[in-house]
């Protein structure tokens, strides 16, 4: 798939923030198409036409009169479609703690010059989407017996890199702020948990699907 076929959906009622986001994304050489809507309702309409690779949700598109929980509810509706990068007031980060730890959401504090950070996260998500295109495919009958091994290989290789880099950073924890150390420990714990889940799933698959070999 050509990289320019990837779509970034920007949800923002702040026209200057939306324009600024598009300008910052242009730094990355036009690897993606950007669509702007001003509300969650419009976003769901766009999903019917084009499934985005990543969504940028600016808190300006949320009706905050409904309370802080409105942000959590909006994000929960979006993550079923694509990863979400959220820009909101710093105190709202705790509302999305579980979703951030799960990897479905990236959070950017909406203070100062935050748009370059948002654009960088969006571009990184697009790059991940590009790399994953075509990687996971339903196995043919001939390869069904090998699916457990394919699953282990395609998931464990990235997990090994995540764990390795996380451990390298944790080895230098004395130079890191406590909050960063806690997040790195969370990343390591989630990666280990995911690797164990992959191991159990792939073993269960192997037990119930004998490899189909040519006669």
Number of strands: 5
| Model regions low in confidence, pLDDT < 50 over at least 5 residues | none
**CA gyration radius, whole angstroms:** 20 Å
The main sheet orders its strands as 2-1-3-4-5
What is the straight-line distance between the termini? 36 Å
Under CATH at level 1, the class of the largest domain stands as Alpha Beta
What is the domain total for the residues?
2
The biggest beta sheet reads: 5 strands, parallel
Topology:
Layout lengths: L6 E5 L3 H11 L7 E5 L2 H8 L6 E5 L10 H10 L5 E5 L8 H6 L2 E5 L5 H18 L14 H24 L7 H31 L7
Parallel strand pairs: 1-2, 1-3, 3-4, 4-5
Give structural notes.
It is built from seven helices and five strands; from the N terminus they run βαβαβαβαβααα. It is of the alpha/beta class and 215 residues long. It folds into two domains: 3-132, 3-Layer(aba) Sandwich (Rossmann fold); 144-208. Strands 2-1-3-4-5 form a five-stranded parallel β-sheet. Helix 1 (15-25) links the parallel strand 1 and strand 2. Helix 1 (15-25) packs across helix 5 (115-132) and helix 6 (147-170) packs antiparallel against helix 7. The protein is globular.
Give short descriptive properties of this protein.
5-stranded parallel sheet; 215 residues; Rossmann fold; alpha/beta; single chain
Summarize the structure.
With about 220 residues, the protein is α/β, with parallel strands linked by helices.
């Amino acid at each position: 798939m050509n990289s320019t076929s990837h779509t970034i959906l920007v949800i923002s009622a702040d026209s200057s923030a939306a324009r600024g986001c598009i300008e910052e994304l242009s730094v990355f050489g036009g690897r993606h198409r950007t669509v702007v809507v001003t509300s969650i309702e419009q976003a769901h309409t766009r999903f019917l036409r084009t499934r985005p690779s990543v969504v940028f949700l600016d808190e300006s598109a949320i009706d905050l009169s409904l309370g802080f929980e409105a942000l959590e509810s909006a994000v929960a509706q979006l993550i079923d479609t694509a990863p979400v990068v959220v820009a909101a007031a710093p105190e709202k980060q705790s509302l999305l703690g579980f979703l951030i730890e799960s990897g479905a959401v990236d959070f950017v504090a909406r203070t100062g010059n935050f748009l370059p950070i948002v654009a960088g996260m969006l571009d990184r998500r697009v790059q991940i989407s590009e790399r994953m295109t075509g990687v996971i495919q339903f196995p043919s009958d001939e390869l069904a017996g090998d699916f457990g091994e394919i699953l282990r290989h395609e998931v464990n290789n990235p997990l090994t890199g995540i764990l390795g880099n996380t451990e390298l950073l944790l080895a230098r924890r004395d130079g890191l702020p406590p909050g960063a150390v806690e997040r790195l420990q969370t990343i390591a714990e989630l990666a280990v948990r995911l690797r164990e889940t992959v191991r159990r799933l792939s073993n269960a698959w192997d037990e119930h699907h004998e490899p189909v070999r040519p006669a």
